[in-house]
Amino acid sequence: HGVELSVGDGAFYAMPRVADDDTAWCERAIEDAHVAAVPGAAFGAPGHARFSYAASTERLEEAVDRLADADLI
Prior knowledge:
The protein is 34% helix and 11% strand. With 73 residues, it is α+β, with helices and mostly antiparallel strands. The chain has a three-stranded antiparallel beta sheet with strand order 1-3-2, with helices on one face.
């Protein structure tokens, strides 16, 4: 889906670049795609969203598909 992604060492979180207003983007993600994310600004990374990837490959693929269907990625 062409997402710019940053993954930290030793953790199970990814922080893709999403939008300048990361809070609004995360609200849309939960409302429109039923995918939870935390605004990156809370972690010193405005314009990004933090996702946990501690889930099965199938669940992660479903989340990506939902975000794409909601035109979020």
